[in-house]
Amino acid sequence: MTEQNARKVVKVVVLGDIGRSPRMQYHALSLAGCGFDVNMIGYVETKPLSNIQENPRITVTKLHPLKIEWAPKLLQYFAKALWQAISLLLTLFITGKSSHLLCQNPPAVPTLPICRFYCLVTHTKFIIDWHNYAFSIMALSLSCNHPVLKVSTYIEKFFGQSSDSNLCVTYAMKQDLLENFNVMATVLYDRPPNIFKPITVQEKHNWFVKIGSQYKEFIASKIDASDIARHSDTRHTAFTEVEGNLVKLKTNRPGLLFSSTSWTADEDFSILMEALQVYETTFDLVKNLPKLICVITGKGPMKEYYKEQISSRKWQHVTVITPWLEACDYPTMVASADLGVCLHTSSSGLDLPMKVVDMFGAGLPVCAYDFKCLDELVQNGENGYTFRTSDELSKQIVSWFQDFPNNEKQNKAADKMRENLKKFQESRWEDNWNLRAKKLFE
Fold first, then answer.
1. pTM score, two decimals?
2. Is 258 helix (H, G, I), strand (E, B) or coil?
3. CB atoms within 10 A of CB 46
4. In 3D, which of 11, 108, 35 has the Cα closest to residue 442?
5. For residue 48, how far is the Cα from the chain centroid?
């Protein structure tokens, strides 16, 4: 590879599932748009965005995980770290030179030391994109004096200081990096790409027909799911109907609640479970709530456990669906909902949930779990609501859907929130990246 070509190559390292790392995929697309050849290195458990797969300037180099479930936890951790270190280091050198390496943190071990070593040997600019802290995630399960925790903290601090540039996701994190790590970082807020946008009633109808072939809850009760699957009746769904050439929302439709979760211990799904239980109980008491369909997407280790919990409740008025959506369908599902719920809590209190960014991009107001710096994204009562307990969340959901969809007062409040979100939608990922991150690669 000539020196001229090397200057036009950027490596983007994700020591995780590339398909579930939207921010790093957006980085790759922006770099490719600026004329760089991009090599994404990481695990491919989930398909990346179609734009990534189809872009001639972007190549994806797969890393292969080590699986030794039979071993003790501590041995698994060290064996996994050693395997990752060796495979990442070899992959970096085998794939050739580059002008810049952009690395996602966390995880810090072994990512930061290996990437820094490669950059030193090959004279490559080293850039860290701070999404959170590895040590704060470890602190959820380890004691504050645990040696692994101390090592992780030191590694993040040392390699953060030795990098050429740093990006981070909030101003709170920028300040914390400076005060505690002596690291200067540029704030690059997550912003939705153009695929997240409000959609028309016609587009919603088309989506409900499509997903109705898999999930009968989306079709009208009098229509058989097999009919829609055979395209013999595409004029009716549970939410929409076609009259003449006009598609309209039904006035007696169910409410559609949307959430996306990683199904892990750091997102307390029981909060939403209890809120839905309150909704179920309240339904019979007040007589002015619609039936509720709750769509929850995502993959994670606790998914099956909570699916069993949901099934055991035997709700009559609340239906929970847990589909896995393709990347191209996810934005449409978000834009079709009436209200979003975000259960994300930050181990450091310094990062913001990208799922809320996506919801806002699609014009969807959200109820979000409150933590230290959430007000950098969600303003309570302006573009959504914040909550700390299942009781607070249940009140917000019940209030939102009272006399739905014919509650004029509530409809005005919802319209005001969607109007406030239009300002947020003016700043898209592409423009924000060009303004704040592009200069680091020039």
1. 0.88
2. strand
3. 14
4. 35
5. 13
Long-range contacts of 45-53 (CB under 8 A, 24+ apart): 45/17, 45/19, 45/20, 46/17, 46/18, 46/19, 46/20, 46/299, 47/19, 47/326, 47/327, 48/18, 48/19, 48/327, 49/19, 49/22, 49/25, 49/327, 50/327, 50/328, 52/18, 52/25, 52/28
Cα R_g (the chain), whole angstroms:
23
Q: Which amino acid is at 293?
A: I
Q: Are 167 and 185 contacting, i.e. CB atoms less than 8 angstroms apart?
A: yes
Mean pLDDT per 10-residue segment, the chain (442 residues): 58 95 96 97 93 96 87 80 95 96 95 97 97 89 82 94 97 96 96 94 96 90 50 80 92 96 81 96 94 92 88 94 89 97 91 95 97 94 96 98 95 95 93 96 92
What tokens does 21 get?
């790392």
DSSP structure string for 277-322: HHHHHHHHHHS----EEEEEE---TTHHHHHHHHHHH--SSEEEE-
**Residues whose CB is less than 8 angstroms from the CB of residue 413 and which lie 6 or more positions away in sequence, other chains included:** none
Secondary structure of residue 59 in the 3-state scheme: strand
Report DSSP state, residue 230. T
d(CA 265, CA 244): 49
Q: How far apart are CA 365 and CA 412, in angstroms?
A: 13
